[in-house]
Structures are given as structure tokens and as C-alpha cells.
Amino acid sequence: MTLDRRFIDLYDDYTHRPLDRRLFLERLVALAGSTAAAQAVLAVLEPNYAQAATIAENDQRIATQRVSYEGPNGKVTGYEARPKAEGRYPAVVVVHENRGLNPHIEDVTRRLAVDGFLAVGVDFLTPLGGTPSDPDAARALFAKITPAMVVEQARVATVALRKDPGGNGKVGAVGFCWGGGMVNQLATHPGVIDAGVVYYGVAPSTADVAKIRCPLLLQHAGRDTRVNAGLPAYEAALKAADLPYTLYMYEDADHAFNNDTSAERYNEAAAKLAWSRTIAFFKQNLG
Questions:
Q1: Contact of 120 with 151, CB cutoff 8 Å
Q2: Whole-prediction pTM value?
């Protein structure tokens, strides 16, 4: 199904702004013309986690487990995937979207392991009890998560990963949507990560950009006017501080183009190209 842009924009408002689901559905029905038509639209917009496992959890190339790290303010939990072959691998923290640590993000974590990384998808909702199974309940919790809480949890995870005997001492981070914005935030705290990949994430404050000490790969969707509005000032600040970064714009892609559980927004060509660039970037800067 190819949707009118108004449906995609409405869904973007719902997923990123405080728009109540009841009100969202009312607007969706009004836009679609009927309840049945609205349900058909939802079927291609909302994530279908049954499609999440591109890498099976029992894939023989990798080992997976739930992990927990002790932090100064409590435990930090996550989902780990690592290559089974002996070796010391660079580590990557996966920062989820504003739906928490769900099956899609766990699959992304496994993809990194297949590509030769010690990967951990951290559940940044751990301080609030962890990611709930209801995506809307998960979304509501993000109003209570501050950047400082994210940085603290990431620091706990990266310290543990630097000490992991299966790691090489280097740790990067990749984030999507909300998580992309959080990778930008992590980069402004020197020593937390050694490299960062941002997928359509909100830019940090320009006043903080000069604090960045790690290389960044910024990957954005051409149709994502909401997030892209902050890019010119971010780029100008990066250039003014002479900081290493690469920006790619995928012109025909929507926000969340990497999420293959959302049929309408997923862009296979953009996702594959962006992923190949992600792996090459991490191998260059963490390998």
C-alpha cells in the first residue's frame, strides 16, 4: 500500500509528540474516511514484530543472553549478542527508539554480532521497570527519561564492555529515532563512546557540540522535515569545531526507514546502504 503523505505525517505526530492514541485514531478515521480504511492504514504503519527476526535468536554464528550491569543508581539491563568464534571484538551499544527494547532492536543487536561486534541493546527504561510489552505504554514512559539518565546507563554499559574479555576495549553506539538523538547526547560526554552512528536523531544543543571528541556518522531521511530542521545548525557547529563527522541524506526515505517491521516507512534500499556504511564506519573507528 502506498499511503498519502498525510497519513505518515499524522503517524509521526503520534509517535513523537504527546498525541493521545484515542485522538490519533479519531483523526486517522476522519482522514481515511472509515474505520475499516483506518485499520488498513494502521496495518502498514504500526510495527509488526512477527517480521522482526532477520537473524534468528538461535543462529549458530552468535550467542545471545540477557545481561545486567551494576550501576551507582541501580542495575542497567539489556540484550547481548556476540560472535561465537574466538576473538576480541569491538563493542557497540544499541540505543532503541521511543518504544524501548523490543524484538526489532534485539534483531538489530544480533545483526551487529553477525557482522563481528560484541553488541548490547540496553533497555534505557530499566529505571522505570523496563520496557513494557504494550508499545503505547512504553512510549508514555519516555517523558520521564532524561538525557542524564541515559548517559549514566550508557556509561555503566560501556565501562563493562571495555572490560569484557571478548572485547577489544573500544565501544561505539548506534541509535535510531529517539536513540539517534541520545547517541548525539552521548557524544557530547567525552569518554563514554569512541564512535557514534545516528539514524534520524535530533541534534544536540549547539552549545554542547564543541565537547564532542569521537567521530560521528549521521544518517538522515530526506522526507523527515521534523528532525532535519535542526541539521544545518548542527553541521555548522561541527564544522566550526573542526570535528570529524560524515552526513548522509537518503532523499527518498522517511523517518524510521531502517525499521523493517513498519512496512510503509521501511525503505529497503536506504536501509541496506545505511547499514553497510554503519558497519564500515565501526570497523574503521573501533576495529
A1: no
A2: 0.89
What's the CA gap between 45 and 52, in Å, rounded? 14
What per-residue string of b and e applies to 211-220 under the rule 16 or more CB within 10 Å gives b? ebebbbbbbb
Domain ranges of the chain: 5-45, 49-286
Q: Residues 108, 177: contact at Cβ < 8 Å?
A: no
Cβ pair 271, 260 in contact under 8 A = yes
Residue 92's identity, in one-letter code, is V
Question: For domain 49-286, which CATH number applies: 3.40.50.1820, 3.40.50.300, 1.10.8.100, 3.30.1360.70?
Answer: 3.40.50.1820
Spacing of C-alpha 148 from chain mean position: 17
CB 284 within 8 A of CB 214: no
Angle at CA of residue 146, ends 209 and 161, nearest 5°: 75
Beta-bridge partner residues of 278: none
pLDDT of res. 23 = 78
User: Each residue of 159-188: pLDDT tens digit?
Assistant: 999 999 999 999 999 999 999 999 999 999
